[in-house]
Write a structure and sequence with these properties.
heterodimer, A: about 350 residues, mainly alpha, MetI-like fold, two-stranded antiparallel sheet, 16 helices, globular, B: about 325 residues, two-stranded parallel ribbon, 2 strands
Chain lengths: ~350, ~325
């Protein structure tokens, strides 16, 4: 009996070993590395074996990013601002649109369900780089979107959708005559390297386009998840509501939405984790510009680590991003409630 | 929910009219969104078959008309004006964009690389994830629970955080800018182990027990008896791994970004876009986009069920 147990244990370790080695070498050890180098001033170029390649600087990288006035702090908080606008725009948009579309596709009377599901899902299987190129093609200054608008409204002046740094909220405030000049002294108060006026700029036009792009790409995925959950709701629940004479809206508001709560939690978590890391689209479309208005935290990590030879700072930025994502996920757990569920 | 209605005899005329309006509105919303999702792809395919001047003048022309396969230059060697290859609705298709991206650029090589990477990573994950998933589901050995939670835990770490340390590790191992560097670092994934473990827990273990009593070797049994039963889960896993690797941009940028001969398709297209700056030659970029999307599109239409079933587990692509 003892030998059979031993045989089973040996088999167990052998079976797990290949995957475990990959996890250790490319996931677990890297995390330890990332934390370690976030406390150093390594530039990322000098070979580590060379004496004096780096030295320990304690919490200095974190201090530079968060508290010390200067370009590092300015960039970090610009990136944080841009990323936050991005997340707060895309996550609700993709969740609500996906839910609405899923509810319509789930209707019994609808024909061609398969077609709609395919149409909505197709962008999700396409490479983010290709999607970005397609958007650039459509929204370039001389592109099809501008010609279409011009065809409808001959007075329209072409907008350079992918290279406009103006903040959307600034533009809206401008319509009401509110500018930095007329806003009052509070607008000039500086916080972490930017004036309050700049903090409330909203996403730039370019960023807004990237937000629309990402919403467009992901609603299909979210919709399919919602659709699966809707189909799991037993029909008796609806029949009971029907017998009680509930209206469509009451049924939706008080039965469907509460029953979908675990799904909503899952969808929002996926959305948060994905959106906070937005990188590919930024790399292809705008490289962080114009005027750093599409600089996101993920892009800042890449830029500092691989372009500006500041690997220590980049590692610290990455750790901060991890903490931010973790905090947001916990916060939404509080807000949406609901246990983590696979469907 | 529009599918829930009051019993017919209790419905007033006004309520019926309201329902009609709601139904029509719902269908309109669906069709509008479906068009928004599909039209960009139609435009991409159509414009990839146009001569460059036609792309600039009439990107909206969607209907191909003969003659097919025209040359975009006249016999004297000067480019044909847009008016000779397109009208506002129709165009004469050409393969000029495909020729340019494949012959003048390295897209063909990147295509082959993408196949090598995707096939290798998929095979590795099928083997490693199913072995580990099976062990964690069926075999008792000290530490198996800890291992499972470590693997699950790695699912929560955002990929961007791993970008730098992965680069460091591969640099130390001398595997930066190599095929094996890219393949090894993606050779197992927590989602796959999790998927396989769940699957093995859902099927009865009697057949394996019987085989063990007969004295079968555990490894032989795994490959002869267990794996064939796991075909549905393996198919889903294969599709996800293939799709993820095919579209992988961020890891590719860091791990193989230093050597153009190793680029996969997304990395190649992105770097090419950077090199061209603002004056993109759209017909060839769109041709490259079509070639990058086509293999996955074919897989998608064959295995649609698996794509749709599996995404509820998977994370989002960035």
């Amino acid at each position: 009996m003892q030998s059979k147990k031993r045989e089973e244990a040996i088999a167990g370790y052998t079976f797990v070993a290949p995957a475990l080695i990959v996890f250790m070498v490319f996931l677990v050890i890297p995390i330890v590395f990332a934390i370690y180098f976030s406390f150093t001033d390594w530039n990322g170029i000098t070979p580590l074996a060379q004496p004096g390649a780096y030295s320990f600087v304690g919490l200095d990288n974190y201090n530079q990013l968060l508290f010390q006035d200067g370009i590092r702090q300015q960039d970090f908080f610009k990136a944080l601002k841009n990323t936050t606008y991005y997340v707060l725009g895309v996550v609700p948009a993709q969740t609500i649109l996906a839910l609405v579309l899923a509810v319509i596709v789930n209707q019994r009377w609808l024909k061609g369900k398969g077609f709609f599901r395919t149409a909505f899902y197709f962008p999700s299987i396409t490479s983010s780089v290709v999607i970005s190129l397609i958007f650039m093609f459509m929204f370039s200054t001389g592109g099809i979107v501008n010609s279409l608008i011009k065809g409808l409204f001959p007075a329209y002046q072409n907008v350079n959708w992918l290279e406009t740094a103006d903040g959307v909220f600034h533009s809206i405030l401008g319509l009401f005559g509110v500018t930095l000049r007329s806003a009052g002294d509070w607008a000039r108060v500086e916080l972490a390297g930017q004036r309050l006026w700049e903090w409330i700029s909203g996403p730039s036009v370019t960023m807004l386009m990237i937000m629309i792009l990402n919403t467009w790409t992901t609603i299909g995925t979210m919709m399919v998840i919602y659709l699966a959950a809707l189909q799991n709701i037993p029909s008796q629940v609806y029949e009971a509501a029907y017998v009680d004479g509930a209206t469509s809206w009451q049924t939706f508001r008080h039965i469907t939405i509460p029953l979908l709560r675990p799904t909503t939690f899952f969808v929002v978590t996926l959305g948060l984790i994905g959106c906070f890391q937005v990188f590919d689209q930024i790399f292809v479309i705008s490289s962080g510009g114009p005027a750093k208005t599409t600089l996101t935290i993920a892009y800042l990590v890449y830029n500092n680590g691989f372009r500006n030879s500041a690997m220590g700072i980049a590692a610290a930025t990455a750790i901060l991003l991890f903490i931010i994502i973790f905090a947001f996920t916990m916060l939404q757990r509080r807000l949406v409630g609901g246990e983590r569920s696979e469907m | 929910m529009a599918s829930i209605a009051l019993p017919a005899h209790e419905q007033t005329g006004a309520a019926r009219a309201a329902r009609r309006v709601l139904t029509i509105a719902g269908v309109v919303v669906l069709i509008v969104f479906a068009l928004i999702e599909i039209v960009p792809f139609l435009l991409t395919v159509a414009n990839s078959f146009k001569c460059l001047p036609a792309v600039q003048i009439a990107p909206q022309a969607l209907i191909p008309t003969p003659p097919f396969g025209i040359a975009c230059v006249s016999e004297s060697g000067s480019p044909l004006p847009a008016s000779e290859t397109t009208t506002s609705l129709t165009f004469h298709p050409t393969l000029d964009g495909y020729r340019e991206i494949l012959v003048d650029n390295d897209l063909g090589r990147w295509f082959v690389n993408s196949i090598i990477f995707s096939v290798a990573v998929t095979l590795a994950r099928l083997a490693f994830d199913s072995l580990a998933g099976y062990a964690l589901a069926r075999l008792k050995f000290p530490g198996n629970r800890v291992m499972f939670f470590v693997m699950l835990g790695t699912m929560m770490i955002p990929g961007i955080v791993l970008l730098i340390p992965r680069f460091l590790i591969l640099q130390q191992l001398g595997m930066l800018n190599t095929y094996q560097g890219f393949i090894f670092s993606l050779a197992a994934d927590a989602f796959g182990v999790f998927l396989m473990k769940q699957f093995f827990e859902s099927i009865p273990g009697e057949i394996e027990e019987a085989a063990m009593v007969d004295g079968a070797n555990r490894f032989v049994m795994f490959f002869r008896i267990v794996l064939p039963m796991a075909t549905p889960a393996l198919t889903a896993l294969a599709i996800f791994s293939f799709q993820g690797t095919w579209n992988n941009f961020m890891d590719a940028l860091i791990i193989i970004g230093g050597k153009q001969d190793l680029f996969n398709l997304p990395l190649g297209l992105a770097i090419l876009r950077g090199a061209y700056g603002e004056t993109l030659r759209w017909h060839s970029f769109l041709a490259g986009s079509v070639l990058t999307t086509l293999p996955l599109a074919i897989l998608f239409f064959i295995f649609q069920r698996y794509f749709v079933e599996g995404i509820s587990y998977s994370g989002l692509k960035g």
